[in-house]
Amino acid sequence: MILVPPSIFVGLLLALWAYKCLMTVLFQDKIIYMPYMPPFARKEKIADYATVCWPVEWEEQRIRSLDGTRISLCVGGIPRIEDFQAVRKHVVICYFQGNGSSPPPRLPLLSQVLKLIHTRAHTDVRYTLVALAYRGYWTSTGRATQSGIELDAQAMLKWIAETYTSPNTETQIIIWGQSIGAGVASTAAATFLSHQHDVPLAGLVLETPFTSVKSMLLALYPQKWLPYQYLYPFLWNHWDSESALRKIAEAGNKPRLLLMPATRDEVVPPTEIAKLEHLCKELKLEYERKNVVGALHTEAATRREGQEAVAKFILSATRA
User: Fold this and answer.
1) In this predicted structure, what is the pLDDT of residue 165?
2) How far apart are CA 255 and CA 268, in angstroms?
3) Does residue 122 or residue 264 have the better pLDDT?
4) pLDDT at 13 over 80
5) Where does the record place the Peptidase S9 prolyl oligopeptidase catalytic domain (predicted)?
6) Residue 51 CB: number of other CB atoms within 10 A?
7) CATH code, residues 35-317
8) What is the mean pLDDT of residues 51-72?
9) Secondary structure of residue 263 in the 3-state scheme
């Protein structure tokens, strides 16, 4: 009888451990993707940010993903007199956000980058920024999953290639992703380069990136008594930037890379950016690294230093 209480206690601990493992696996999409945070994120409106974004003008475009899901894009640019004259080059910047909120609250910082670019750009070059609302986010339909978001990213790139290509204008694409969006960006870039496209991918910006979901699990939960590091075989969300970069290295026309970590990142350990930098060296990819000093995980591009770095990189990568 004396062994009954401790047996029950141990049994309850094991049951709780197993329950937590099961729930983590079954609800990983809910844990990783948070379109509902902060509250009312899906009800955000572009018009509410129009004043602070000026002179950048934004509009919503609705397109179909590769599986037919209706997804939304925020498309922005600065109207100029030159828009009605001959344009030698059109640079389209594709932005993939982090795992929370929606595109409209990010439009002010994206607008600031566009403003910085335009102050230094040639008058015969037009810059457009397209931000994707993943399925399940903002006004996009469906439910967020990695397989679905990969289709959304390719649909956006296909739409850009069809919409912004013209016989007399050179079109170039820059892909920019933040946090988990960096995983989306690298995966999208690898897939895009694996197909033969007339539109070149000139650059890839990875802001506060991590190597993979598995790597993050091992880095954040190294304790062997915790269940998390044993769960990666059951993941269906991987966002493996290492694998994507290896595919990019095999492409004929490799894009330039910008690695932009935040030095006070409270989410992604510094070991992750070190792994990615080492990988770029190993694969002989042309890259540069810009540390945003003092920035937290979501602050890298909100800081002037980060915005300047992205604008400078885009101008350099697309200069011909």
Assistant:
1) 87
2) 24
3) 264
4) no
5) 155-315
6) 8
7) 3.40.50.1820
8) 98
9) coil
CB distance 137 to 73 below 8 Å: no
158 φ/ψ angles, rounded to the nearest 5 degrees: -65, -45
Cα–Cα distances (Å) from 306 to 170, 222, 274, 301, in that order, read 27, 31, 19, 5
Query: Exposed e or buried b for every residue in 179-212, given b needs 16+ CB within 10 A?
Result: bbbbbbbbbbbbbbbeeeeebebbbbbbbbbbbb
Buried b (16+ CB within 10 A) or exposed e, 133-152: bbbbbbbbebebbbebbbbb
Rounded to 5°, angle at Cα 79 from 74 and 84 = 125
In this structure, what DSSP letter does residue 201 have? E
DSSP 297: T
For the question of whether the overall pTM of this predicted structure is more than 0.85, the answer is yes
Element (H, E) at 64: strand 57-64
Distance CA 300, CA 308 (A): 11
The H or E element containing residue 241 is: helix 241-249
- What is d(CA 72, CA 135) in angstroms, rounded to the nearest whole number? 8
Q: In what order do the strands lie in the sheet with 57-64?
A: 57-64, 70-77, 125-133, 89-96, 170-178, 201-207, 256-260, 287-289
Strand residues in 97-194 grouped as ranges (E): 125-133, 170-178
Q: How many CA atoms lie within 13 A of 263 on its CB side?
A: 9
pLDDT tens sequence across 251-275: 988 999 999 999 999 999 999 999 9
Q: Are 207 and 309 in contact (CB under 8 A)?
A: no
